[in-house]
Each structure stands twice: as C-alpha cells, then as structure tokens.
Predict the structure.
Amino acid sequence: MRPMILTMSAFGSYADCVTIDFGQVQQGVFLITGDTGAGKTTIFDGITYALYGQTSGGRRDGTMMRSQYAPSGTKTYVDLTFSTGGQVWRVLRSPEYERESKRRNKDGERTMTKERGSVELYQPDGSLYPGTRQEVNRKLVEILGVDARQFMQIAMIAQGDFLRLLLAKSDERKEIFSRIFDTRIFGRVQEELKNRSKRCYGELEDNRKLCLREIEQLEVSESTAQEKEELLRTGQKEPDLEAVLAFAERLLEEEKAQYEQSQKEMKKTTAVLEKLNQRYSVEKERAQSFAKLAQLEKRLGVLEAEREEKDQEKERIGAAKRAAKVETVYAGYREAAESRKRAKMQEKQLEGWLEERKAETGKLKEKEETWSSYVKKLEEKEVPVLERLRQALEQYGQLQSHLKEAERLEKHRQQEADRYQRADRAYRQQAERYEALYQEYLAGQAGILAAQLKENAPCPVCGSLHHPSPAKRPLANLSQELVEKERERRNQAENDREACRQKYQETENRYQQEMAVIREQQMRLLQREQNEEESLEVMKNRWEEWEEKARKRLKDGEEKLQVSKKELDRATQSLQKFLQEENRKKGQLEEVQRQCEIFKEQEKEKRTAYEAMRSEQQFETEEDFQNACMKPAELERREKALEAYEEQLRQSRQEVNWLRQQLKGKETPDLAQTESELKEQKEQQRMQERELRKLYSRRETNQQAARKLQQLTKEREELRKRYQVLNTLSRTANGSLAGTAKIDLESYMQRQYFQQMIRCANRHLERMAAGQFLLKCRSLENLSTQGNAGLDLDVYSLITGKVRDVKTLSGGESFMAALALALGMTDVITQAVGAVHIDTLFIDEGFGSLDENAREQAIRILQGLSGGSRLVGIISHVTELKEQIEQKLVVTKGKSGSKVEWK
C-alpha cells in the first residue's frame, strides 16, 4: 500500500481542509518536520483512520479527532487515495461527532447536535462499493491484506517504544512481544494447562476425601476399631486403598458368619415360642369356659327371680287384647258423637253470620241503585254530544288531508308560476335578438343595393335618378340562413312559454278546486255560511286550535263516562258477590241442619253396640275398659319383651347344662404362669431380631462402602495417571521444571520471532555501525533459572570478540540498535503476513542522539530500504536532517490550526 493523496478536513490539529500529495516525493525518503504539537504524527493518524477508522496510538478514536479550531459549519472527514497491487482505490471516512446546531432553541441559544459517521469506498473503476460500514471495513482489510494492528506495526516505527524494547528486561519484552506478535494464545495454552493440572489435583484431593469418608462409614467391632483408625490416619496424606479394600473384605466375611449364626438361634427361639403359644391358647380357652359358666349361672338366677312379675305382665297383655276388640266399636261411637257436636257448632256459626250480613246487604243495594241512576242521566246528556264531536273530528281529518294537498298544490303553483315567468323572459329576450338581427339583415340587403347605385341612373326600388343618402353596406354580411335559425330559436322559446303557461293554468285550476272543497267542508263542519276568503295558514291555525279544544272535550267526556261506568260495575259486582255468598251460606245452613239429625241417630245406634261389646268382653264398667286399654305399639313392645324373656330363660338353662357337661372333672388353669413364660420367650425373640437387624444393617452399610471404595480406587488410579501427564505438561509449558531455564511456552515462541528479528536487524546494523557490533539473543545455557527468561539481549563486539550487556551501549549506539531492531521487526511482521507489501514506512523521532556519521549511515540505510519504490517518512525536528533530506513536508502551527507545505 502506498498513499497518493491525503485530504484532512477539521481533523486533529488541522482546522481547514488540508491536502497532501505524496506523488511530489521524488525519492523514497522524505522528512516531516515542524514545531512540537503542530500535527506531524496526525498525518499518519489520518492515513490509519481513513483505512481502519482507528488512530495510530490507539488512545483516541475517530469521535475524538474533531478539530477544536474548526468552525461549526466545517465537516470533519479524511479522504485518502492509495495504490496497491497496481490498482488505485479511494476511501472517504467521516467520524461521528457533536457540532453546534444551526437552529436555536426557545431561549435563543444554540444547542449541540450529533453528526453521524460514514465511510465510502470508491473502486478502481470509479464506482462506489455497495455495503454497510462493517462490510466496507472488511473489504479494506481484504484489499490491504493486514488489519489495523498489523498495519500500525509495519508502517510506523515509534522510536521511543523500540528503545524501550531494546533495553527492556525479559519480562517486559515478553509483554511487548505478546502484544506485537499476538502470542497470547500460547499464554492461554499455558494457563489452561495449569488450570487443568490444578483441577485434576483438586479431583484427586476430592477422591482422597471421599475415600476417607467411605472408610469412616465402615462399621467395625471393638476388635477392629484400632485397625480402622490406623487406616484413617494413613489416609490423611495418601490412602492405602489396597489395605482398605482387604480390611473391608475381611469385615464382610466376619459379618456374614455372625449373621448366619444369629439366624440359627432365631429359628430355635421361634420354635419354642410356637409351642408356648399353642399351650397358652388351649389354657386360655378352658379358663374362658369356666368364666362363661359362672356368668351364665348368675344370669339364670336373675331370670328365674323375675318369673312372678312376668306372669302378671302376661295377664295384663290378655286384658289389653280384649279391650282392643271393644275399642273398635267404642271409636265408632265416639266419632258419631263428635260429628254431631261439630255439626251443631257449625249451625250456630252460620246463623250468626247471616244475621250480621242483613244490614250490609241493604247498603250495597242502595249504592248500586245510586250509581245506576247517575250513569243513566250522564249517558242521556253526554253521549249525543260526544258522538257529534267524533263525527266532527272525522270530518276534520278529511279537511286536514285537503289542507295538506292544497298546501302542496300552492307550492307547486308557485313553482310553475316561476317557471312560466322565466320562460316568458327567455322568449322576450330571444324575440328581441331575432328582431334586431332581422332588421340588421334587411339593412344589409339595402346596403348591397345601394352599393350598385349610380348618379343619373334610376334606382331599382324607387326609380329616382339622384341618390342623396344611400344606405350603407354593413361591416359584415348576414346570411338568411343565420336569420332563419334565430327565428326558429324564437319560435321554440315561444312554444316553451306556452307549455309553461298551460302547466301553470292546470295547477291553478286544481288548487282552486281543492280550496272550494275545503270551504265546503268548513261550512258543513261548522254548519254555518263561510263567505270570507282565508289563506291556508289562517285556516290551519284556526282549525288546529279548534281540534285541540274538541279533542280535549271528547277526552274529558269519555273519561268521565268511563269512570262512572267502572264505579257502577264495581258496586254491582260487590252486591252480586255479597248475595252469592249469602245464598251459599243459607245452603250450607240447611245442609248442616240435615246432617245434625243424621249424626244424632247414628250416635244412638253406636252407643248401644258399644255397651253390648263391653259386656261381652267382661268389662263391667267403662272405667275398667279404659284402664285395660293399651296402645298397639305398647302392646306389641310388651309382647316382644315377654317373648324375649322366655327365650333368654330357655337358652340360659340350655347353655348352663351344656357347659357343666363339658367341664365336668376339669380344673381351672393357671394362666399367669403360662403368660410369664410366653412374655420371657417373646422378649428373647425381640432381642434376637434386633441383633439380626443390626447385623444386617451393618453388613449392608459395609457392602455399600466396599463397592464405593472399589469405584473410588479405580477412579483414583485414572486420576493419578492423568495428573502426572497434565502436571508434567503444565510445568514444561510454564517453565517450572526443576534444574532448567525459566522459559515458558509463550516466551519460547516469542524467542523464535526474536531471533528472526535479530537476524534481520543485524543486516541493517552492520551497515549503520560500520561492522563494530551486532545484537545477539542470549543462549539457553546462559539463561537464569530464576524468574522469566529466554528474551534476554546481548551485544557482540566484532572487534574484541566479547559479549556484553545491551545496556552498555552509548546513546548513538542505542538509537542505531533500536532502529535496526525496529526495521528487523518490520521485516518479520511483513514476512508473517505473507505476500502483502506495505510500501510506506513512518519513523517517529530519535535521530537527535546520533553523531553525524551515524546519522548519515542511518539515512543511507533508510534510502536503501526505500529502494526507489518504498515511501519512508521521518518525523523529526532535528536541524541536521533538514539539510540531509531534500524532500520536506513542513507542518506550521498557527492560532487557528495547522497547515502543511512541501519544500
């Protein structure tokens, strides 16, 4: 890449638009000079920003490059035309920045507004490359072959940085190379190996702790407890898993033997317990039989003591059964007596009700007669009047229809009259136009004749020989055809007027007919003469007032008549209802009196039947009968109770006799002794079961622990092998192997780049230093074993053949060595990125410490480096360089920004 034209506007220290034409450089080396802070390095920043949107130092981005001297209306941008691969490209880039707005706010002050950033790439054929900002940036990297970091490393030598690189310690140089050659990936490999080694070691520690926990889980007896403690103590550092597994296997074998022995003892105890349970069941059953016999004998004595009472209950039940037969007849007698009493009481009630209603009946009859007389008189007075009003309103409805029709006809008549007037005006106007045109036509004909008259020649019209005032010929001749058309228009207008007149006359006749009908209906409705003429509006107002009064009178009369009839209906209905109720009560009284006689006869007959049945059932008096009566439910309950007693007595006697036969000759067993033996045996069984469960639980726990220990042993072996590999790799990559130089993987890779840099640098240094000394990378055998090593730099004197520290170089020698090292590094980076060629190199300061001879050598080397095609720009304010380098780009600092000029 070689810059051709660079334009910067309001960028950095340049307030105005500044254009630098690099095509004016005749030779490869040129000087960029000027005052401190004038903006010499900004030129390289402009190139870098145009290509990548970044500045060379990396401390400021594009948004910070807006010039503080630039007017608010000046736009900030960088425009770079460059060549690469034989093609010319142009890139125009503008950063995002804030500027003063052209508009003012409501307070009259100017606010800040944001200017959006943009980038445009013009291709060799002049067309604009399509794509977003990110796509354009990727395209530029593709064109140049290097990214921003690599470009700044290749194209810019900041001498202060490389002097630090020359004199830096190995640790500091490692940090610089890590950034320059991007060897951090090897550092990450080192860190990853270290982390994996630590994680593996942590897994080993976790495995050891798990092993100790499983050893603690082993349940042991007193005889093996000390051996378990010894295994735990040993495992605090490194568990002896073979001994642990052997110990666990031995425990399991012992527990298996103990468990089998406990099972045998348990079986013996269970057999003895079964025999005791059988004996206890037999003895318990016999004891229950003796207890049941004593209980039944006691119960039988109680039942036999109740025998006399139960015989008396049996006699009471017999009397109650006989009384039940009498009670049926007695109930019929009592029902007949009660019916006669109820009928007698109802008869008295009805007689009292009829006596009370006699006066009220008279009042209702009087009220009904009064309303009937009032309604009759009201009908005679109001009905004819109301009927006349209804007929009049019906006629008024017809009149209203005629009034509406007359109103419509009146509007239509007015419309036809207006239409007739318009037609008449149109006709008159057309007639006047025709008459004027016709007269003009006639005058034209006279003018035509007059044009042919000659003095002393007779006039063809009047025969006169003299023509004192002949008619003048009109300016334009009118044809007869035009006059005829105008006459036809007049005739058509006359016909239209006649048609409108006829329609108006028809409408007028219909309107007059309708008005005549209306007046006739008015006279008929009011039954009087109607001679005066009235307008429709007057008629409507007067008849609407009449209609309102008539309808109000009709409504009031109908309501009054309706209310009176309703009152009469209510009075009539009340009287009819009252009379109906009175007649119903009289009928009820007659029926009740008839029933009283019937109930009296029935009561007499049923009393005779009752007394006959009572005597038959051996009850002397009614009191004896009533005392013997018993409710059916009570009678049933007592019968069942007596039957239950007889059944209990029978069963008790039967059971006592059967048990006496069964227990004859047998003694009552001693259950307490048997229960004591049974309890003792059950306790022994429970203890054996508890011991068996304990052995089973301990055996299961130890089996699980043993299986887990076997798994952990296998895992630990695999972890130990993996840790040995990872630990060795980590110590090797991180340079921590005992007895070797402290050089890690990243430093080792950087050392390869460093040695290439030194070889390239020595080629340049050999010419600059006139073959006095060379740079040398310290060999691995001479590296320190303390701290980071591998990037140490020495100086080899070609004169004395000795090696010394690079810090012993003088100021001029240090600059030459640093410049050579920087050029060597540029060569290495260029080789690293492949076939990419950056035909531009900027060197920032550092020549002030060189003597005249060394400076000339450095200039010659840089001129040789350019080779006539490479562009080398030296940024410096050293006076001697101004004399040695002809091509100079002078940067002048001013109050309103900097300017540039080729000299």
Notes: The chain is about 65% helix and 10% strand.
